[in-house]
Amino acid sequence: MSKLTNKVAFVTGGSRGIGAAIAKRLAADGANVAITYAKDAGAASAVVKAIELGGGKAVAIQADAADVVAVKNAVEQAVATFGRLDVLVNNAGTAIPKPFEEATLEEMDRVIDINIRGVFATTQAALKHLNDGGRIIMIGSAVGERAIAPGLVPYAATKAAVRMFTQALSREVGSRGITVNNVQPGPIDTDLNPASGDWAVPQKAATALDRYGRADEIAAMVAFVAGPESSYITGANLTVDGGMNA
Q1: Looking at the 3D structure of the chain, how many domains does it have?
Q2: 189 belongs to a structural domain
Q3: Which of 79, 112, 78 minimizes the C-alpha distance to 94?
Q4: d(CA 27, CA 164)
Q5: Residue 26: which of 6, 9, 14 has the closest Cα?
Q6: Residue 44 lies in a domain
Q7: What is the dihedral of CA 50, 55, 60, 65, to 10 degrees?
Q8: What does each C-alpha distance from 133 to 56, 126, 129, 188, 225 come to in angstroms?
């Protein structure tokens, strides 16, 4: 049996990048997977098809992480589809890189609404259905612990909030055997932060391994904390950053 056989996972922002890699890996480990996406139905459908080709089951649900009603409905739809909920991965997130003095309130609101408010709303909705012994996993950021470059002030602040949210929530749900952990990626090669992009040189140079990470390397950590072998890990911030914060 695979580690997550008969489990159901809900992954926000699962249509591309790290979220897509997480969805595919959890499915490969045996879970039925529901993913949310904001706009790109084609990309979300491609993830579902890839999972189905591998023998898994998946569904894509349209829900912008900043839309609390849509997020709550998406959780309900996932439970209605698969009958249960065991793993929540709060992956959806955004950044609008620019000097803080140039950031507009609208831009900051967007980052806060997705990275914090959306995480709060999704987690609250999921807890109503999450089985005892379940897993809640945040995708934070290494810059939520150490800001190594300018241009990410609101983003770094939201990811620091996610870090503390993880620790505090773990205290409240631990009696149910539910673990809450925060996976903190460093620079990962995705559409939003390509290894060939303008911001890549200083990020790569800041790592000990002198390279960008791959989305599947983040998915591997998520799969571990979603599985049975991590049952005594909770309230932890697990940094996967190639040594950027070393």
Answers
A1: 1
A2: yes
A3: 112
A4: 29
A5: 9
A6: yes
A7: -80
A8: 23, 13, 12, 30, 12
pLDDT digits (tens, 9 = 90+) for 24-54: 999 999 999 999 999 999 999 999 999 999 9
The residue annotated as part of the active site, out of 37, 155, 212, 232, is: 155
**239 vs 200: CA distance, rounded Å:** 19
Domain membership of residue 95 as a residue range:
8-240
E strand or H helix at 219: helix 215-226
- Residue 246 in domain: no
| Measured CA distances, 237 to 90, 114, 123, 174, 213 (Å) | 14, 20, 17, 16, 18
pTM of the model: 0.97
Active site residue 37: no
Q: Give domain status of residue 1, yes or no.
A: no
**CATH number for the domain including 55?**
3.40.50.720
User: Is residue 182 predicted with pLDDT exceeding 80?
Assistant: yes
β 130-139/58-62 pair status: unpaired
